[in-house]
Amino acid sequence: MKFVIVLSALLAVALAAGGDPKDATVVRYDNDNIGVDGYKFGVETSDGKKHDESGQLKNVGSEQEGIAVQGSFSYVGDDGQTYSVSYVADENGFQPQGAHIPVAP
Question: Rounded distance, CA 78 to CA 80, Å?
């Protein structure tokens, strides 16, 4: 009886892991507000990956014209843990934040 319980638990964990990433399918795709002044999108796949991002054109017509981007993504690592990263990318560069990312002193 213990064998059946352990086997069932292992099977449940294996199924929850999502299997081979090559077999993943898109379960959500949002493609909103894509234009000259900015964009916004979101995607989620059956293997647990998620990515949401938006960007806006800043300082239009000036020497400092550029795009400011903010977003987040998450995925399930090989260890079964979900890793999440939020980020900003602008005139100050790419600035990621996440519980697993070391912070400079």
Answer: 5
